[in-house]
Protein backbone atom coordinates (compact mmCIF):
# COMPACT_ATOMS: atom_id res chain seq x y z
CA UNK A 1 0.00 0.00 0.00
CA UNK A 2 2.79 2.42 0.93
CA UNK A 3 4.59 1.65 -2.34
CA UNK A 4 1.46 2.47 -4.35
CA UNK A 5 1.10 5.82 -2.59
CA UNK A 6 4.76 6.57 -3.24
CA UNK A 7 4.37 5.70 -6.93
CA UNK A 8 1.26 7.87 -7.20
CA UNK A 9 3.16 10.82 -5.72
CA UNK A 10 6.05 10.26 -8.12
CA UNK A 11 3.66 10.08 -11.08
CA UNK A 12 1.99 13.33 -10.04
CA UNK A 13 5.39 15.00 -9.68
CA UNK A 14 6.47 13.71 -13.08
CA UNK A 15 3.25 15.00 -14.69
CA UNK A 16 3.91 18.48 -13.30
CA UNK A 17 7.50 18.40 -14.57
CA UNK A 18 6.41 17.25 -18.03
CA UNK A 19 3.80 20.00 -18.24
CA UNK A 20 6.59 22.56 -17.87
CA UNK A 21 8.65 21.10 -20.71
CA UNK A 22 8.50 22.55 -24.18
CA UNK A 23 9.59 21.08 -27.48
CA UNK A 24 10.41 23.27 -30.46
CA UNK A 25 10.59 21.83 -33.94
CA UNK A 26 11.43 23.61 -37.17
CA UNK A 27 11.08 22.49 -40.75
CA UNK A 28 11.44 24.55 -43.89
CA UNK A 29 11.28 27.77 -41.87
CA UNK A 30 8.05 26.79 -40.10
CA UNK A 31 8.44 26.60 -36.30
CA UNK A 32 6.14 24.98 -33.77
CA UNK A 33 6.32 24.84 -29.97
CA UNK A 34 4.38 22.17 -28.07
CA UNK A 35 4.30 21.86 -24.28
CA UNK A 36 4.28 18.78 -22.09
CA UNK A 37 0.48 18.82 -21.96
CA UNK A 38 0.66 18.19 -25.71
CA UNK A 39 -0.81 21.61 -26.47
CA UNK A 40 0.44 23.74 -29.34
CA UNK A 41 1.83 26.95 -27.84
CA UNK A 42 2.94 28.67 -31.02
CA UNK A 43 3.25 28.27 -34.77
CA UNK A 44 5.43 30.55 -36.88
CA UNK A 45 4.87 30.28 -40.60
CA UNK A 46 7.33 30.92 -43.39
CA UNK A 47 5.77 33.40 -45.85
CA UNK A 48 8.40 32.52 -48.47
CA UNK A 49 7.00 29.05 -49.16
CA UNK A 50 3.74 27.94 -50.78
CA UNK A 51 0.60 27.03 -48.90
CA UNK A 52 1.12 23.36 -49.69
CA UNK A 53 4.71 23.44 -48.38
CA UNK A 54 3.53 25.18 -45.21
CA UNK A 55 0.84 22.55 -44.68
CA UNK A 56 3.41 19.76 -45.05
CA UNK A 57 5.84 21.55 -42.72
CA UNK A 58 3.16 22.11 -40.06
CA UNK A 59 2.17 18.45 -40.18
CA UNK A 60 5.79 17.34 -39.98
CA UNK A 61 6.57 19.74 -37.11
CA UNK A 62 3.54 18.60 -35.15
CA UNK A 63 4.30 14.91 -35.60
CA UNK A 64 7.97 15.42 -34.75
CA UNK A 65 7.17 17.40 -31.62
CA UNK A 66 4.66 14.80 -30.44
CA UNK A 67 7.26 12.04 -30.89
CA UNK A 68 9.77 14.04 -28.83
CA UNK A 69 7.22 14.64 -26.03
CA UNK A 70 6.33 10.93 -26.03
CA UNK A 71 10.02 9.95 -25.91
CA UNK A 72 10.57 12.28 -22.95
CA UNK A 73 7.62 10.71 -21.17
CA UNK A 74 8.85 7.18 -21.89
CA UNK A 75 12.35 8.01 -20.59
CA UNK A 76 10.93 9.47 -17.39
CA UNK A 77 8.68 6.44 -16.90
CA UNK A 78 11.67 4.11 -17.32
CA UNK A 79 13.66 6.05 -14.75
CA UNK A 80 10.85 5.49 -12.22
CA UNK A 81 11.12 1.71 -12.42
Write the layout of secondary structure elements.
Blueprint (H helix, E strand, L loop, with lengths): L1 H19 L1 E6 L2 E6 L4 E5 L6 H30 L1
Antiparallel strand pairs: 1-2, 2-3
Helix pairs in contact: 1-2
Write a brief structural summary.
This protein has 81 residues and is α+β, with helices and mostly antiparallel strands. Helices cover 60% and strands 21% of the residues.
Can you characterise this structure?
This protein is of the alpha+beta class and 81 residues long. The chain has one domain: Nucleoid-associated protein YbaB-like domain (Ybab, Chain: A). The chain contains two helices and three strands. It has a three-stranded antiparallel beta sheet with strand order 1-2-3. β2 and β3 form a beta hairpin. α1 runs antiparallel to α2. The longest helix is centred in the C-terminal third of the chain and has 30 residues. The radius of gyration is 16 Å and the shape is elongated. The chain starts with a helix and ends with a helix. The model has no long low-confidence stretch (mean pLDDT 87).
Amino acid sequence: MFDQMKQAKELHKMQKELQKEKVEVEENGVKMVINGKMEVESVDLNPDISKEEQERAIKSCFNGAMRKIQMNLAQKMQSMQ
